[in-house]
Amino acid sequence: AQSVTQPDIHITVSEGASLELRCNYSYGATPYLFWYVQSPGQGLQLLLKYFSGDTLVQGIKGFEAEFKRSQSSFNLRKPSVHWSDAAEYFCAVGVGDMRFGAGTRLTVKP
Amino acid sequence: DTGVSQDPRHKITKRGQNVTFRCDPISEHNRLYWYRQTLGQGPEFLTYFQNEAQLEKSRLLSDRFSAERPKGSFSTLEIQRTEQGDSAMYLCASSTSNGHYGYTFGSGTRLTVV
Predict the structure, then answer these.
(1) Which tens digits make up the pLDDT trace of A41-67?
(2) Nearest-CB residue to B100 (from A32, A43, A99)
């Protein structure tokens, strides 16, 4: 069965610092992978997706993610974090019955 | 297009009552999904539709839960005989038929069972 693990429950970074959020997945075939962001009281917004092709994918708001099949990982990165990036981030796998990780809460220090 | 709409935004109900939520997807999207999210957790898959056909149901969807999409447009999720454990955010999303491009989520309906 497909599943996602986000090892970090909460991460704090300083504004302007780089960011990497980890995601490991379990999926029987070529995975469809996604990152979503959820701000307090808001719905989930799609940041980026991967299902084939170049393993480094670019998304909105300056985010990127790299698919590594050998490590079953799809980590999200941003070179310089802004205070407005503070939110909950979810990695997800699959289509149809898409499965989400438990999320990583990002706090940005001034 | 105004995106995915969910109604109501908030619902407070007494234990044992029935509740119904509505979701209006993006009009061009023929897939519609229901998820449940509790505090501090990721969304949990409940069920999804392709047009009016319900293609998959999670084991989380007990017999007290029923979802419909009668004309392949809006969908309703009904919970009968609500329990306190049903308190959660219920999220609806829609997508094109293969879902490869990700889902568009609504803002959710927050259910509180007292």
Answers:
(1) 788 999 999 988 889 999 999 999 999
(2) A32
What is the pLDDT at residue A94? 87
pLDDT averaged per 10 residues, chain B (length 114):
89 98 95 94 94 89 92 94 96 88 92 98
Closest by CA position to B16, among listed B79, B68, B63, B67: B79
- Judged by a CB distance cut-off of 8 A, whether residue A83 touches chain B is no
Per the structure block, which two tokens stand in for A99?
């499965």
What amino acid occupies position B65? F
Judge whether A27 is closer than 8 Å to chain B, CB to CB: no
CA distance B31 to A22: 29
A103 near B CB under 8 A: yes
- Asked if B105 and B75 touch (Cβ cutoff 8 Å), the reply is no
Using an 8 Å CB-CB cutoff, list residues of chain B that contact chain A.
4, 33, 35, 40-45, 48, 55-56, 58, 91, 93, 95, 98-108
